[in-house]
Design goal:
The protein is an alpha/beta fold and about 325 residues long. Helix content is about 45%, strand content about 20%. The protein has 13 helices and 11 strands. The strands form 3 sheets. It has a 7-stranded mixed beta sheet, with helices on both faces. The protein is globular. The termini are far apart. About 50% of the residues are buried. The mean pLDDT is about 95. Bound molecules: glycine. Glycine binds next to helix 5.
């Protein structure tokens, strides 16, 4: 199955297929110098499937985890590219989850003012969300994604077989982003997740459906001037919880907790059941008072309020400006 992201000259295909890694030479143009970026948690054979078809390559394997998404590692990747004598005709390939994609993508966006970038996401979260849409970034001084750029990949290759080796907790974290898209844009997807008797078996369908939603949103608003903010549903409180947790919670787990306060009280029991079914947490181990400083630092809160996404009816949403205090008071109401 191929889903297209139509962005004029920046259009690209997303291939979703069992065994897609074996098609790397068909889907990616690798007859050049290639920097392959992966991490220590990604099975080595995934990067090997890519390097097997590169003319010349170098693999950078970073320690797994968000704490690797730093300016230091960004510099390290740039240094490797310089050392290899890479020029504007060469490319970067990310093989891994969101951290690898964000960091490798940002490196590709900025090396010599931009080189080609391919994304081969191997976690569910990256497959349904972060690998498409061109958001690339690194964290700095404890602020997530504060240095970044929009740089669309040339192609995204999703091998659904990679999910077989993924821990259950990582699958659950990825499902949180699909629930996010379902809650805001696709009631049918929400009902599907709710009634599935085997979520693992149904992942390929959930992935393609989520990608279709994301592709349509990105096509209409590639640089997040308006509509694309819908993809931040659950992320305002979610990011605060993630920062407060100091890395003990996964991004998707924080988004799960962050969505509940942002939907209508009547919807919360249904969403709670769906999140629990996915294996996700539904309550934060932090109080509103503890989270307030993180919301005040939110890069979107400079004018005193933040645009948040609220859901009253599944499959639809509205955007509202709210103060950090208003957002957190919803959190206190949402504990079920
Ligand atoms: N993950 C949110 C976005 O791509 O806009």
């Amino acid at each position: 199955m191929v889903i297209s992201v139509s962005l004029g000259a920046k259009s690209y295909p997303i291939t979703v297929e069992s065994g897609a890694l074996a098609q790397a030479s068909r889907e990616l143009s690798l007859d050049r110098r290639v920097l392959v970026v992966t991490d220590s948690g990604v099975p080595r054979e995934y990067a090997a499937a890519v390097t097997r078809v590169c003319r010349k390559f170098h693999v950078c394997t970073l320690p797994a985890g968000e704490s690797s998404k730093t300016l230091d590692n960004y510099r390290l990747l740039l240094q490797e590219m310089l050392r290899l004598g890479m020029d504007r005709g060469d490319c970067v390939v990310a093989v891994g989850g969101g951290m690898v994609g964000d960091l490798a993508g940002f490196t590709a966006a900025t090396y010599m003012r931009g080189v080609d970038f391919y994304n081969v996401p191997t976690t569910l979260l990256a497959q349904v969300d972060s690998s498409i849409g061109g958001k690339t970034a690194v964290d700095m001084d404890g602020v997530k994604n504060v240095v970044g750029a929009f740089h669309q990949p040339r192609a995204v290759l999703i091998d659904t077989d990679t999910l077989q080796s993924l821990p259950r907790r990582q699958i659950a974290a990825g499902l949180a982003e699909s629930v996010k898209m379902a809650m805001t844009c696709d009631e049918e997807l929400l009902s599907f997740i709710e009634s599935s008797d085997d979520l693992q078996r149904d992942l390929p369908w959930i992935i393609t459906r989520s990608l279709a939603i994301k592709a349509r949103v990105v096509e209409q608003d590639p640089t997040e001037q308006g509509l694309r903010r819908v993809l931040n549903f659950g992320h305002t409180i979610g990011h605060a919880i993630e920062s407060h947790s100091g890395g003990s919670l996964l991004h998707g787990e924080c988004v799960a907790i962050g969505m509940l306060p942002m939907c209508a009280p009547t919807l919360r029991p249904r969403l709670t059941d769906i999140l629990r079914k996915c294996g996700l947490p539904t309550a934060a181990q932090a109080s509103a008072v503890q989270l307030l400083p993180y919301l005040l630092h939110d890069k979107k809160a400079q004018s005193g309020s933040i645009t948040v996404v609220e859901v009253d009816t599944p499959g639809s949403f509205r955007m509202e400006r709210r103060t950090p205090e208003e957002i957190l008071s919803r959190m206190e109401d949402a504990v079920l």
